Each structure stands twice: as C-alpha cells, then as structure tokens.
C-alpha cells in the first residue's frame, strides 16, 4: 500500500487588515450587514507590489519547514490560483519554483477557483500513489484584492488575500484516504471574471466597463454551496469506507458562515468540530482551505489519528472533498 499523506502545512497572509468599518467608508454597507450575512469581520489585503507568488513563497517555506524538508527534496510544484502573477504565462508555479531556488522539477498552475486546493490534492495524490513522485508541494494562493471592484458592495466585502501550502509525501498507513472532485460547467457565468481572456481580450472598453473584475450572482452560488458541501463530503467519506460519525474535524471552504453552518447541520457536526477563520480573512478562494488547515493543525485542534475532511466549492462551478487520517 502506498498512499499520500500531508507531511507539512504552512500559511501566510499579508499584514494589512481591512475591517468592515473601513468598508463602511468605501461603499454603502455596514458592519452589521456584512457580519449577519457572511460572518466576515475583516480581511487581509496585499500591498500593491506584493504578488500571489510572494504569498505562496512564504506559505511554502513554512510548509517545507513543518515537513522537515528542503525545496531540493520536492519533485513537483502545483499552484492553485485564480489570481496568477501573469494572466497567460509564465505560471505562478514556475515563479514560485524560482523563488524557492530550485530548478528542473515540473511546476504548473491549476484553475478550479476556490476548489483549487482540493483539486491540487487530488492531482498530487495520483502521482504519489503510482510511485511517480515522492514529495509534492501543493499551494493555494490568491491576491483577490487585485481583481475586485472596490465600488461593488456585493462582492468587495467578501474576499481577501492569503496563501496556504501543504507538502505531500508517501505513507504506508493513514494519510489521504479518498478525494472526490467535480464540476458543473453549465453554471459557469454565476461567478466570473469576463474580461482579459480569449473571449474578451483586454481593451480600453473592458476596463471602462469594469469587465476585468469579479462578478457574482450571490444567491445561486449560495444555494449550490449549501447543497454541494454536504454531498461532496459524504461522497468522499463513502470512498474511504467511512460514515458521517467518523468525522473528527471538518475544514470547509471559508466563504460564508451561513454556508458553513448549513453544511455542518447536514453532516450533523458540532460547532467545535469545524474550523472557522473566515471572520479574520474573508474568502481567500484557493488559499482558504489550506490557510484554515494550517491554523487548525498549529493550534492543536487536529491531532494524530483524527479523521479530517476538507471540502470546498467555487467558480466553475467546481467542488471537491478529501478525507484524511491525520
Ligand atoms: N452591504 C449592504 N447591502 C448589500 C451588500 C453590502 N455589502 N451587498 C449586497 N447588499 C444588498 C443587495 O443589494 C440586496 O439589496 P436589494 O434587496 O435592495 O437588491 C440585499 O443586500 C440582499 O442581497 P442578497 O443577495 O439577497 O443577500 P444574501 O442574503 O443572498 O447574501 C451573499 C448575499 C452574502 C453574497 C450570499 O448570497 C452569499 O454568500 N453567496 C455565496 C457567495 C460565495 O460563497 N461566493 C464565493 C464562491 S467561491 C469562489 O470560487 C470565489
């Protein structure tokens, strides 16, 4: 038996904090509205000259240290992001490879929005289980603040910047027991950045119309999220031959406390079995699950032998869940 395990985790968020009260000065909103609708109190915002790969680099160094490995020990670098340093190429993974000071190993980006980290776990697991690679760095990193329309109160209150990383290595017992990923492309336009790609390449018009910013229809995303979190988690449990009762700890995508609470109810979990840090960071997309996982591990909430479920959803629409024996 050869499985993958998470050998180390790390995370990083920019220092600069933007509170709900700061947002009250920017758009027609209130701390009360944001808190009751989302649970978010503040989020971190990267400085103008800070890129996604900078955040990814800091999180990766911490994950490598936690795993007791050096960058030279890595066989593959995967970066899940919706906010790459450059829109077409090079990939953020190649820039991260350079920052880590290694050369030669493959490095690529993965686009699955907020489900990106779980998609990354799914990909990395295949390489490890087949024996192709030993140590794989999977990073979720975002500077969403750079693609947010700061005049759109419907989206600007929700998102934040950050990064989380995990080093995956082989194990003979426990580890990543199952992963499931999925997508429903028919809903590709409910959460979208319309401009800047091959459909609507950059032009003055794109900028004038603000099509380079995140656009979201909150309600269909909300309904989808509530349904899919429970469904994906149950599917991953089934693949691992486990039941809902076996879950010790849930790390959900940190988008909205109401979505997390609804998923917890469907999975019959108590509040103390779920890690929530969205109040501090908002929705950091691909970074949200590894950022929460890192904090949960470091604060001692997850301990050896625990059954941990990671579950996410995002634009695409996409979803993914993973069951880990820690
Ligand atoms: N402050 C004050 N009022 C606001 C704000 C704001 N920041 N934003 C919207 N409103 C208003 C709306 O304009 C609307 O007013 P109207 O009724 O006069 O038109 C009113 O509040 C109610 O809006 P709803 O959309 O009905 O509010 P809802 O309860 O659905 O909450 C929310 C909105 C929080 C966005 C919710 O729909 C949600 O969380 N959706 C899921 C979003 C999500 O998870 N996205 C991330 C996906 S992951 C990824 O891939 C990035």
UniProtKB/TrEMBL annotation:
The gene is fabH. It is an enzyme of class 2 (transferase). Residues 108-185 form the Beta-ketoacyl-[acyl-carrier-protein] synthase III N-terminal domain. GO terms for molecular function: 3-oxoacyl-[acyl-carrier-protein] synthase activity; beta-ketoacyl-acyl-carrier-protein synthase III activity. Catalyzes the condensation reaction of fatty acid synthesis by the addition to an acyl acceptor of two carbons from malonyl-ACP. Catalyzes the first condensation reaction which initiates fatty acid synthesis and may therefore play a role in governing the total rate of fatty acid production. Possesses both acetoacetyl-ACP synthase and acetyl transacylase activities. Its substrate specificity determines the biosynthesis of branched-chain and/or straight-chain of fatty acids. One of its GO terms (cellular component) is cytoplasm. Residues 254-258 are annotated as: ACP-binding. It comes from the Bacteria. Pfam families: ACP_syn_III (PF08545), ACP_syn_III_C (PF08541). Homodimer. This is Beta-ketoacyl-[acyl-carrier-protein] synthase III. Residues 238-326 form the Beta-ketoacyl-[acyl-carrier-protein] synthase III C-terminal domain. It catalyses: (2S)-2-methylbutanoyl-CoA + malonyl-[ACP] + H(+) = (4S)-4-methyl-3-oxohexanoyl-[ACP] + CO2 + CoA; 3-methylbutanoyl-CoA + malonyl-[ACP] + H(+) = 5-methyl-3-oxohexanoyl-[ACP] + CO2 + CoA; 2-methylpropanoyl-CoA + malonyl-[ACP] + H(+) = 4-methyl-3-oxopentanoyl-[ACP] + CO2 + CoA; malonyl-[ACP] + acetyl-CoA + H(+) = 3-oxobutanoyl-[ACP] + CO2 + CoA. It is found in: Cytoplasm. Pathway: Lipid metabolism; fatty acid biosynthesis. GO terms for biological process: fatty acid biosynthetic process. Its EC number is 2.3.1.180. The active site is at residues 114, 253, 283. Belongs to the thiolase-like superfamily. FabH family. SUPFAM superfamilies: Thiolase-like. Keywords: Acyltransferase, Cytoplasm, Fatty acid biosynthesis, Fatty acid metabolism, Lipid biosynthesis, Lipid metabolism, Multifunctional enzyme, Transferase. The last Arg residue of the ACP-binding site is essential for the weak association between ACP/AcpP and FabH. It comes from Orenia marismortui. InterPro entries: ACP_syn_III_C, ACP_syn_III_N, FabH, Thiolase-like.
């Amino acid at each position: 038996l050869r499985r993958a395990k998470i050998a180390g985790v790390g995370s990083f968020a920019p220092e600069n904090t933007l509170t709900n009260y700061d947002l009250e000065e920017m758009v027609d909103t209130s701390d009360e509205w944001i808190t009751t609708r989302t649970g978010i109190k503040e989020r971190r915002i990267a400085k103008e000259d800070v890129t996604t790969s900078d955040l990814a680099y800091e999180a990766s160094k911490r994950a490598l240290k936690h795993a007791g490995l050096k960058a030279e020990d890595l066989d593959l670098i995967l970066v899940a992001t919706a906010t790459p340093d450059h829109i077409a190429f090079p990939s953020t993974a190649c820039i991260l490879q350079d920052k880590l000071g290694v050369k030669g190993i493959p490095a690529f980006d993965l686009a699955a929005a907020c489900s990106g980290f779980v998609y990354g776990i799914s990909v990395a697991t295949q390489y490890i289980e087949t024996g192709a690679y030993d140590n794989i760095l999977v990073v979720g990193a975002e500077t969403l603040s750079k693609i947010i329309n700061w005049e759109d109160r419907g989206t600007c209150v929700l998102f934040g910047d950050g990064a989380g990383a995990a080093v995956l290595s082989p194990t003979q017992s426990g580890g990543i027991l199952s992963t499931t990923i999925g997508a429903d492309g028919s809903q590709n336009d409910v959460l979208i950045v319309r401009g800047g790609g091959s459909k609507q390449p950059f032009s003055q018009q794109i900028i004038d119309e603000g099509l380079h910013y995140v656009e979201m229809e909150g309600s269909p995303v909300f309904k989808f999220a509530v349904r899919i979190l429970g469904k994906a988690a149950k599917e991953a449990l089934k693949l691992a031959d486990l039941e809902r009762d076996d879950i010790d700890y849930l790390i959900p995508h940190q988008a909205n406390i109401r979505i997390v609470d609804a998923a917890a109810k469907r999975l019959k979990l108590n509040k103390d079995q779920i890690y929530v840090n969205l109040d501090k960071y908002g929705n950091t997309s691909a970074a949200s699950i590894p950022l929460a996982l890192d904090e949960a591990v470091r604060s001692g909430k997850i301990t050896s032998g625990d059954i941990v479920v990671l579950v996410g959803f995002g634009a695409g629409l996409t979803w993914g869940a993973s069951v880990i024996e820690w």
